[in-house]
Amino acid sequence: MATAELRGAHTFNFDPFNAHRDDPHTPLRKARREHPVFFSPALGTWVITRHADVVAALRDPARFSSANAITNVPAAPPPEILEVLAAGIPYEPNSVDLDPPRHTKFRALINQAFTPRRIHAKQPTITALAHAAIEGFAHAGTADLVAEFAYPLPARVIADLLGIPSEDLPAFKRWSDEWLVMIGQIGDLDRQRKAAAAVVEFQHYIAAMIAARRTRPSEGLVSDVVAAVQDMPDPPSDNALVGLLMTVLFAGHETTTSLITNTIKLLLQHPEALAQVRADAELIPAAITETLRFDPPVPNMYRTTTADVRVGGVDLPAGEHLRLSFASANRDAACFADPDRFDLHRADKANHLAFGQGIHACVGAALAQLEARVSVQALLERLPGLRLVEGALIEPVVSATVRGTRRLMLAWDRQ
Ligand code: HEM
């Protein structure tokens, strides 16, 4: 069957950017039952909805390539933006969008920064950062959790991880904000041009940091990576290292913002679960795991078929772009009992796919969960009577790979 005909035969209406932005779960539930593998004209990709099929694709990188793993439909920025970016450092695939054997080399470089011992050692820093942030707004009695806490905290943690000196933190914050504007193609062309110029500055800053760490090693991932590549027989280029370090920032920032926000939001929306967590702080990790299952910050990643494959009963040719829906797999009744119920005590919650699986499984999973645990504990301890503001706008932010909440207005009892 010709590709167009095949797509036509398996079309299903799913548009998470518009019609199904607020509730992607209703169409996905129907799809799991009736069209477990379908083509979405709105997305321009195939969507894989069942847990078993998503796992099979994640576990088979030879036939499901990670090229374009983070893009919905590969689309270059407009020429005006490309012109600005030409003054920067050309992008080279570096980890999440590479297949073995090249992926293996980059993965080894970052793995060393995320060992359990190193992550555990970050706990005092993260705790201090969380409490300092809360100190800044606790007196107000009300705040937007995203702007005041959940957005800045992970950026500070990553800056610490990379070894960014404290005097450069304001610039670092601006660069990471502008990067999201550019990637999200937010605002008019002038706005995006300004954002692209900031990204170029950021690239040169990272490149200069790589060069400096070569002669003056110090603490942090940049220094570790520079030291590790010196011993490699065929080391990656500096341009690829800039891309790798920016990937770490991108992969670990908004995703963690979303995990912190979603956990607080779901607890406040489920008073029974909140009461259980308040009574026993040991349940906070269970609340975080159940949030990852119920409302994953990265609801999907993408793969491209490299050969003819059969998925969920559909024969797909080589070269098709697939969206692996973790959000759908995490609600698959074949894997989770009563999947639409938020339940801290469910035995099956750890089978979620929020961090992927296989060779690309999230390298920052332990760090993200540590940040979320410390944050939830500090927020519940320091903000008594924490509650959602009546009629709080809970507007989803949806990008090609991240789903979160734009604002989360909270109130608490001032002391
Ligand atoms: C709740 C927070 C997070 C979520 C939900 C998340 C989710 C994911 C997922 C689903 C993947 C797999 C991608 C694929 O299979 O194509 C991934 C990979 C990755 N994540 Fe995370 N992530 C989070 C936090 C972090 C943090 C804090 C960092 C680092 C500071 C990080 C760094 C990475 C990197 C570098 C990769 C690529 C690994 C590779 O390709 O081998 N992530 N993440």
Automatic annotation (TrEMBL):
<dbReference type="InterPro" id="IPR017972">
    <property type="entry name" value="Cyt_P450_CS"/>
</dbReference>
<dbReference type="GO" id="GO:0016705">
    <property type="term" value="F:oxidoreductase activity, acting on paired donors, with incorporation or reduction of molecular oxygen"/>
</dbReference>
<keyword id="KW-0503">Monooxygenase</keyword>
<keyword id="KW-0349">Heme</keyword>
<dbReference type="GO" id="GO:0020037">
    <property type="term" value="F:heme binding"/>
</dbReference>
<dbReference type="InterPro" id="IPR036396">
    <property type="entry name" value="Cyt_P450_sf"/>
</dbReference>
<dbReference type="GO" id="GO:0005506">
    <property type="term" value="F:iron ion binding"/>
</dbReference>
<comment type="similarity">
    <text>Belongs to the cytochrome P450 family.</text>
</comment>
<keyword id="KW-0560">Oxidoreductase</keyword>
<dbReference type="InterPro" id="IPR001128">
    <property type="entry name" value="Cyt_P450"/>
</dbReference>
<dbReference type="InterPro" id="IPR002397">
    <property type="entry name" value="Cyt_P450_B"/>
</dbReference>
<keyword id="KW-0479">Metal-binding</keyword>
<keyword id="KW-0408">Iron</keyword>
<dbReference type="GO" id="GO:0004497">
    <property type="term" value="F:monooxygenase activity"/>
</dbReference>
<protein>
    <submittedName>
        <fullName>Putative cytochrome P450 hydroxylase</fullName>
    </submittedName>
</protein>
<dbReference type="Pfam" id="PF00067">
    <property type="entry name" value="p450"/>
</dbReference>
